[in-house]
């Protein structure tokens, strides 16, 4: 019995040693493709889970989400500008440095978020059909 297992294990290692470079390459390409698929599937699930969107979510809900982002970030921008204004009126010596930091934050980040959220909200509008139903009316924009 032990001799038989020894021969079987020797034979299986010979099979592995005989595996062609082409076969190994094809297996690695298939494995790489599966890994990419797993990564992108996980990323899509993660984004959908974080945002709370799925194929049954209505387009109007997505539009409302981006409108809320717009309003919240716009409110943050206004509040930061008010803080700087109040600091100046109180004669705070840090007002100038704070103003510079706020202007940089607003111009480099907040304004872009506000504009992007506004564009997305307006583009989506208040359509009541699910986001998973993108190609029913106009073939998804195809001509």
Shape: elongated
Q: How widely separated are the two ends?
A: 71 Å
Main sheet properties: none
Count of helix runs: 4
Total domain count = 2
Question: What helical percentage do the residues reach?
Answer: over 70%
Helix and strand string, N-terminal first? Answer: HHHH
InterPro entries: Borrelia_lipo
Membrane topology: Lipid-anchor
Main location: membrane
Protein name: Variable large protein
How would you describe the overall organization of this protein?
- The chain has 143 residues and is mainly α.
- It has two domains: 44 residues; 75 residues.
- Helices cover 76% and strands 0% of the residues.
- It has four helices and no strands.
- Helix 3 packs antiparallel against helix 4.
- The longest helix has 31 residues.
- The N terminus is likely disordered.
- One of its GO terms (cellular component) is cell outer membrane.
Structure summary:
It is found in: Cell outer membrane. This protein is mostly helical. The chain has helices at residues 2-17, 21-51, 59-89, 95-124.
Topology:
Layout (H helix, E strand, L loop, with lengths): L1 H16 L3 H31 L7 H31 L5 H30 L19
Helix pairs in contact: 3-4
Jot down its keywords.
143 residues, mainly alpha, 76% helix, Variable large protein, cell outer membrane, Borrelia_lipo
């Amino acid at each position: 019995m032990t001799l038989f297992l020894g021969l079987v294990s020797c034979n299986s290692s010979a099979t592995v040693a005989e595996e062609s470079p082409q076969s190994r390459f094809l297996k690695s390409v298939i494995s790489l493709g599966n890994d990419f698929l797993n990564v992108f599937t996980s990323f899509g699930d993660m984004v959908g889970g974080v945002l709370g969107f799925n194929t049954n979510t209505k387009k109007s809900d997505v539009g409302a989400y981006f409108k809320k982002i717009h309003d919240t970030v716009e409110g943050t921008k206004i509040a930061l500008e008010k803080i700087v204004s109040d600091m100046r009126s109180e004669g705070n010596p840090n007002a100038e440095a704070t103003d510079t930091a706020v202007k940089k934050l607003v111009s480099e980040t907040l304004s872009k978020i506000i504009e992007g959220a506004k564009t997305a909200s307006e583009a989506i509008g208040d359509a009541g059909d699910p986001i998973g139903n993108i190609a029913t009316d106009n073939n998804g924009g195809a001509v």
